[in-house]
Amino acid sequence: xxxxxxxxxxxxxxxxxKTSLAKLQKLAxxxxxxxxxxxxxxxxxxxxxxxxxNGRYVKxxxxxxxxxxxxTYLKS
Length: 76
Known about the structure:
InterPro entries: DUF1450. By secondary structure, this protein is α+β, with helices and mostly antiparallel strands.
């Protein structure tokens, strides 16, 4: 099984760390999940929730939508 790397920006106004990390851990328990500091994506971050997954930037209108879209990029 391949290792998945998931990162969530701690400054994103559309993601709540406590709930988003718990959801990601439940959906991808084997993944390496971490919080990252601001990556200067002020435009997208101000408007969308987003997740970095395996090197990809995935955004959604809500936390749940971003997480759902990110799951598409999980390695099996």
